[in-house]
């Protein structure tokens, strides 16, 4: 039990030990984040003992994290590239792996003025807003189906990029809709870039999720028995919406390079490339219409 009067060092050691006992994979990092969230200061930069109120907050956060609630949900905000996103129950947590996809996507827009960009299955909006952060002149639309996720998406479109140079508000247009039918509403050739981190887990992966991932919406993760349902729809239905030479940039699971490349090639996409994430795993597929 974290109580008032503990030194930051004592509190950190106790929280870390409890998170380790609960099986949390990065207990030292999480303990530091929870301390900072509870006390509003860096535990390594101050010897000031915890006040009773700070201790009570830290105790509550520790209990939640030990119950394997995602750290991002407890914090309520999470950094992505050079900005912060609102996040919580009902939406997929932004992940560092996805930053590589946002950077690859923005990289496809060199030489295009005011590029027209669509983020499908946007969730928090990390990809669409990530492109917008890197290319303030972009016109970004974010599509999302889940009503819970849409609340975070709307808030992030309104405020996540406020204060970044060159940004106007809102940073993106938010549309409620389903990837499997939304293509029918698009003007042929009207887009320069489509970016997406769709659900991509297989039935087998869904049956053996880490406890934290099991708290995230299944709707943002599950993609049919073979994990490819969304890539099939993307490959088959979204090429016409891009101008000739426009780019499709997708996050993929680390074992999906061949399968997704095959689907795209069969549907007539060209210039297909793969990029790796910071962990060296295949994470991003780029293709041209
Ligand atoms: N990267 C997530 C995971 O491994 C999956 C995200 C997704 O399906 N788009 O849990």
Rg, please? 21 Å
Uncertain segments are none
End-to-end distance: 58 Å
**Average predicted local confidence, pLDDT:** 97
The CATH architecture term of the largest domain is 3-Layer(aba) Sandwich
Enumerate how many helices there are, as a single number: 12
Distinct small molecules bound, one entry per kind = glutamine
What percent of residues adopt helix (DSSP H or I)? Answer: 25-40%
The largest sheet, given as strand count, sense and whether it forms a barrel, is: 7 strands, mixed
Q: What is the total number of structural domains?
A: 2
The global form is: elongated
How are strands sequenced across the largest beta sheet?
Answer: 5-4-3-6-7-9-8
Derived structural class:
alpha/beta
CATH superfamily of the largest domain: Vaccinia Virus protein VP39
Order of helical and strand elements: HHHHEEHEHEHEHEHHHEHEE
Beta-strand fraction estimate: 15-25%
CATH fold node name of the largest domain: Rossmann fold
For the secondary structure, the number of strands is 9
Top-tier CATH class of the largest domain: Alpha Beta
Task: Give the secondary structure arrangement, pairings included.
Blueprint (H helix, E strand, L loop, with lengths): L7 H14 L5 H13 L12 H15 L4 H5 L1 E4 L2 E4 L10 H11 L8 E5 L5 H9 L4 E6 L2 H13 L12 E5 L2 H4 L8 E6 L6 H4 L4 H4 L14 H9 L4 E10 L5 H10 L3 E7 L5 E7 L1
Parallel strand pairs: 3-4, 3-6, 4-5, 6-7
Antiparallel strand pairs: 1-2, 7-9, 8-9
Bound molecules: glutamine.
């Amino acid at each position: 039990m974290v109580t008032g009067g503990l030194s930051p060092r004592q509190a950190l050691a106790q929280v870390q030990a409890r998170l380790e006992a609960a099986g949390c994979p990065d207990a030292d990092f999480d303990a530091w984040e929870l301390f900072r969230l509870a006390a509003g200061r860096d535990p390594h930069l101050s010897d000031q003992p915890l006040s009773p109120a700070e201790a009570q907050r830290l105790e509550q956060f520790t209990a939640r994290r030990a119950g394997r609630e995602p750290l991002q949900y407890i914090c309520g905000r999470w950094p992505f590239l050079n900005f912060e996103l609102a996040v919580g129950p009902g939406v997929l947590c932004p992940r560092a792996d996805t930053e590589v996809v946002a950077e690859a996507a923005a990289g496809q827009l060199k030489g295009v003025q005011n590029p027209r960009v669509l983020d499908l299955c946007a969730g928090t909006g990390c990809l669409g807003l990530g492109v917008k952060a890197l290319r303030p002149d972009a016109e970004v639309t974010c599509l999302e189906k889940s009503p819970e996720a849409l609340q975070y998406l709307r808030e992030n479109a309104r405020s996540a990029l406020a204060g970044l140079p060159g940004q106007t508000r809102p940073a993106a247009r938010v549309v409620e809709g389903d990837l499997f039918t939304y293509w029918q509403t698009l003007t042929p050739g009207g887009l320069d870039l489509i970016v997406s981190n769709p659900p991509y887990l297989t039935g087998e992966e869904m049956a053996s999720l880490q406890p934290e991932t099991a708290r995230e919406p299944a709707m943002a993760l599950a993609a049919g028995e073979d994990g490819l349902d969304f890539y099939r729809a993307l490959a088959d239905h979204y090429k016409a919406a891009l101008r000739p030479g426009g780019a499709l940039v997708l996050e993929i699971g680390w074992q999906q390079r061949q399968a997704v490349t095959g689907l795209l090639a069969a549907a007539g996409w060209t210039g297909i490339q793969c990029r790796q994430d910071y962990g060296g795993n295949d994470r991003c597929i780029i293709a041209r219409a």
